[in-house]
Every structure is written in structure tokens, then in C-alpha cells.
Specification:
Layout lengths: L15 H20 L2 H6 L12 H7 L4 H7 L12 H5 L7 H12 L3 H4 L8 E11 L2 E10 L5 E3 L4 E5 L9 E5 L7 E3 L4 E9 L17 E5 L7 E4 L6 E8 L2 E2 L6
Parallel strand pairs: 5-10
Antiparallel strand pairs: 1-2, 2-7, 3-6, 4-8, 7-10, 7-11, 8-9
Length: about 260
């Protein structure tokens, strides 16, 4: 029977680097004890300095200001909100200065004089009709409306026109709006006049009688803008061919030559 052998023990060499590290740690520990700070002070790593991103307040102050705030302030002071700006500046909609706001409010609450006056009613107007120049079969007249009331009124647009016979019967009439100049709202003070130029032809057309005789109206009814009742005046300029009258938009004044 073979004799028993003791198991061999393999020695693992300790790394030299580990020994060096342990030696350095022991030296540091000894130095800490010599300075009087104690083992805990030597082993505890120093706390890192506070980062700007660690607190909400420092984060807000270090971030660049919005472009709208920089544009509104115009200087470096726009990085922080001013006491009077509030959240409106941060959102990019900076409020107007108090003086501007007051002026805007006054402009919105104080309408113009033309907006305060009522519309010109038929009952406060008078009408006259004056013949203007003529040529090449074309005829012109000035239709004038007069504010005969004691208060101002406003108007805007074109008059409605209707030719009538001597007995008051309506003659076929078509009103064309001359849009060479746009309609504008204006105020007529007591005694003010507004006029429209009328235009028609005396050359017979397809819609006139075969013998070429155009109707000769005796009267003209005029409906002011935005009204239903008509004013009446005598028609003396002569025949109207085609049953068509062209009218410009009303404007202040009495027309040419007046």
C-alpha cells in the first residue's frame, strides 16, 4: 500500500501593484493623523461645489433670456424680469407702456364724429337738380342733397333713382353705380350739401321705341342711401334714352361750378 502524501499548497504571489497601493494608503492615513483631522476627515472625499444646474433658481438665472425679452429690453437687463413686466414679457407679448394703453383705450372708446352722428334720413334732407355740360349725345346733371335739419348726420353710398311721368307714373329706370371713385362715409352738418353726378344718353338704343323717340320724364325720385322713402324733384333736362341713369357715390359739396 502506497504511503499517503499531504496535499500541496500553491502559493499565489500577491501583486506588486496591490502592495504599492496599500503602502500609499497607509502613508496617507498616517499623514492625516499627524495633521489632527482624524481618520474620517482623511478618508471622506471633499464635497463637490454646487453646480448651477443643482438648484432651480440658479438654473433659471443662467439660462439665456428669450429672444422676445431681449428685443423688448434692448440691453443686458432683459436677462431677468423687471418688477412691472410680469409674465407678459416672458411669453413674448410685452404690454404697452401705461401712456400707450391709455391712448389705445381712449381711441377705442371715443368713436369719430362721423360714427356718433345718426344716418341721414329722408325727412331731414332736401334735393335740387342742376344741369351740367353735354356733348356727343351724352348728358350730365348734379344731384344735390342738403341737410335741412338742426343736427349733423352721416351718409355713404349711392342714391336710388326713379324717373316718373307727368302723372307720377314710374318710367322704366335702371340705375348704374359709377365706381370710378369709392364710396366714403362723411358727416353733413346743418346746411351742408352732398352731390352725385348723373349721366345718361339721348341717343336711341335697342330698348327705345322704333321711331327713335325716347321717353321725356317729368320728375325724378331719389332715395338717399340706406333709406326707403324718396325725395322728389322736377326733371327738366329732357329725354332719357335706354332708361338708364349712371350715378357717382355721394361726396361733400355742390358739384362743378358751385
Amino acid at each position: 500500500m502506497a504511503p499517503l502524501r499531504a496535499p500541496s499548497v500553491r502559493r499565489v504571489p500577491y501583486p506588486r501593484a496591490a502592495l504599492t497601493a496599500l503602502t500609499a494608503a497607509a502613508a496617507l492615513l498616517a499623514a492625516g493623523c499627524a495633521d489632527g483631522d482624524g481618520p474620517s476627515a482623511a478618508s471622506a472625499p471633499p464635497s463637490p461645489p454646487a453646480s448651477p444646474a443643482s438648484s432651480p433658481s440658479s438654473s433659471a438665472s443662467s439660462s439665456p433670456p428669450p429672444a422676445s425679452s431681449a428685443a423688448a429690453g434692448g440691453t443686458g437687463q432683459a436677462a431677468g424680469p423687471s418688477p412691472s413686466s410680469g409674465s407678459a414679457r416672458a411669453s413674448g407679448s410685452a404690454p404697452a407702456p401705461p401712456g400707450d394703453r391709455d391712448r389705445e383705450a381712449a381711441a377705442g372708446s371715443a368713436p369719430r364724429a362721423a360714427d356718433r352722428a345718426p344716418w341721414c334720413g329722408t325727412g331731414q334732407l332736401r334735393m335740387t337738380l342742376r344741369t351740367l355740360g353735354s356733348g356727343a349725345g351724352q348728358r350730365y346733371a348734379a344731384l344735390v342733397l342738403i341737410n335741412s335739419a338742426d343736427s349733423p348726420c352721416r351718409t355713404r353710398g349711392w342714391p336710388g333713382l326713379q324717373l316718373t311721368s307727368a302723372g307720377g307714373a314710374e318710367i322704366q329706370t335702371r340705375t348704374d353705380r359709377d365706381r370710378a371713385a369709392p364710396a366714403q362715409q362723411f358727416t353733413m352738418r346743418p346746411g351742408d350739401r352732398a352731390w352725385s353726378r348723373l349721366h345718361w344718353t339721348v341717343v336711341p338704343g335697342a330698348g327705345d321705341p322704333p321711331d327713335g323717340s325716347c321717353p321725356r320724364p317729368a320728375g325724378l325720385r331719389v332715395i338717399p342711401p340706406d333709406e326707403r322713402r324718396a325725395l322728389s324733384a322736377d326733371w327738366k333736362p329732357g329725354p332719357v334714352c335706354g332708361g338708364k341713369l349712371s350715378a357717382t357715390a355721394l361726396r361733400l359739396g355742390s358739384g362743378p361750378g358751385r
